[in-house]
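ok, trying the design again with the full structure, not the truncated one.
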């Protein structure tokens, strides 16, 4: 609940009120997504943000921020993202995913459903550590390793199916695939609708 509260408050605090699009909160069987329009400042690197290390050099809506501080809904010290990461970890939930487009027109926080709510067994700490170690040793994220597993199971799987499978945006899947292509782990053979993925490992 604390993680969700932080995400909603951040969305209202940091949205661009010059745009007409409202904050969107979508509750779906496999995730909760919160989107605000007006993405993070370009001084913030997405890699840093996903590690909870981002500190903005510019702030939107300072007066709204002061009001939220008075309500004890925010500290105004760039603690929102680290709090989300910490709370999800303490709850045994999958990591929240943060995403935006290259133009920084939106910011999305995706909360995957806790495995207990979809009937999936929780991984024991040892298994979690093993998965994390495998990701670190390979230089890939856990999601990227899962994408490789999905491609091994179906080498014709489309980007759209991968988006739905992992409940992430097109830009996130494209970024993951680009990382693996640059590392020489996979490439696409053939034309888009009748080709297939080829893994080099």
């Amino acid at each position: 609940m604390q993680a969700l509260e932080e995400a909603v408050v951040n969305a209202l605090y940091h949205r661009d009120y010059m745009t007409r699009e409202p904050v969107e909160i979508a509750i779906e069987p496999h995730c909760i997504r919160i989107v605000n329009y007006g993405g993070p400042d370009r001084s913030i690197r997405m890699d840093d943000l996903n590690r909870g290390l981002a500190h903005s050099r510019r702030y939107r809506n300072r007066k709204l921020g002061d009001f939220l501080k008075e309500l004890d809904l925010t500290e105004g010290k760039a603690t929102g993202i680290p709090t989300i990461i910490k709370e999800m970890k303490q709850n045994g939930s999958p990591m929240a995913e943060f995403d935006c487009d290259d133009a920084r027109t939106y910011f999305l926080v995706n909360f995957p459903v806790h495995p207990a709510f979809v009937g999936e067994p929780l991984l024991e700490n040892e298994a979690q550590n093993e998965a994390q170690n495998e990701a670190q040793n390979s230089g890939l994220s856990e999601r990227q390793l899962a994408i490789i597993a999905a491609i091994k199971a179906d080498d014709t799987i489309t980007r759209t199916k991968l988006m739905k499978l992992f409940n992430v945006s097109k830009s996130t899947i494209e970024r993951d695939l680009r990382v693996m292509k640059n590392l020489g782990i996979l490439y696409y053979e053939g034309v888009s609708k009748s080709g297939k993925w080829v893994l080099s490992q």
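Keeping the full-length input from now on. The chain has a mean pLDDT of 78.
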